[in-house]
Amino acid sequence: DPTDTPVPPKVCGDVNMDGVANSVDASLVLQFKAGLISSLPNESSGDVNSDGALTSVDAALLLQFTAGLIGDDALTC
User: Fold this and answer.
1) 13 to each of 5, 27, 34, 40, how far by Cα in Å?
2) Which of 2, 21, 32, 45 gives a 20 to 30 Å CA spacing to 71?
3) Considering the domain 1-77 in this protein, what is its CATH number?
4) Close Cβ partners of 57 (under 8 Å, ≥ 6 residues apart)
């Protein structure tokens, strides 16, 4: 159907679904875990270490990735 919007590819760490994993996503993960926001548009992409839980460790890994301290191969979702 020509009116269907294509589904963007999943980007590991991209919890706000803007197409990139960055510090904004890390901030959203921390806000979510602290109870400051009630949901994330793509919570499943936030578990970047694939341990089955969305935690501050995932946010830390996202920040390290954004800063260039680790490569995208370290994000395993």
Assistant:
1) 22, 11, 18, 12
2) 32
3) 1.10.1330.10
4) 49, 51
